[in-house]
Amino acid sequence: MSQKFPADLSEFTVPGHSRGLIDALSYRYLLRLLIRKGTLTRYHGSVLGWVWSYVKPAAQFLVFYLVFGFFLGLNKGIDNFPIYLFSGMIAINLFGEAFGNATRSIVDNTALVQKIYLPRELFPISAVIVAFVHFLPQVLILVVVCLIAGWVPSLIGIASIILGMLIVVTLAIGLGLFFGAINVAFRDAQNLVELILLFATWTSPVLYAWTMVADKVSPWVFNLYLANPLTSAVELFHAGFWFSTTSGSLPQPPHLAAFSLIGLLISLIILAIGQLVFKRLEGHFAQNL
What we know:
- This protein is mainly α.
- The chain has one domain.
- It has helices spanning about 20-25, 30-40, 50-70, 80-110, 110-115, 120-150, 155-185, 190-200, 210-215, 220-225, 230-240, 255-280, 285-289.
């Protein structure tokens, strides 16, 4: 009588079992396909194609500069106001597109979610990466303008820009996971996201100087304002791109490094919460779509 030995199942995984964001690295091939799909189909069928990645932010900048810089006079007291405005604007644009794309990512990929199993986190992550790809042309324009204005890159400045990007992307993924999961069952989530993006633009020092807030609110409210991850990210972009082109007419916010780390920590906490909510709700995605 032959002796039976238990089968070695160590190389197998339970079907439908996901390790969350870690699987985005394990399924790199699928992630690349989703990113490729997102970048190629964005302007599919349009006449200008990728030129829209330059036209849209340029038009937005022109409107903001004319209204807030020229007519309302907010450019007074801020050297190289166009660079100040555009460097903050592209940070908010990155957050807005990444957050919005991630929120819609599950619903936009209904066919895949219903038919096959793959880690659902791939969809919001790929959506954020696609937004980052479309953010790069705006950075290129800003770099060229900064160089013309006398920008001198430094290690601290480049580190500030990278940290600002990290805060924005982390926050967008966390909120995208949270609202993307909720959006599957309640499509009102997309409307709420639009309100959040509206507040994001006006509660960050993009169109105005941070000193205007400091002069109007109490110190503890101002500290909360600086602890906002988007405020830290915008000021980090200002520090990296704009500050070295000025004569110091507008100083950097107090304790920017400390508040930037606080902003990053808040973004990581939101990312953890978003992942937990996503994991809890993803089992109902197929039936709710």
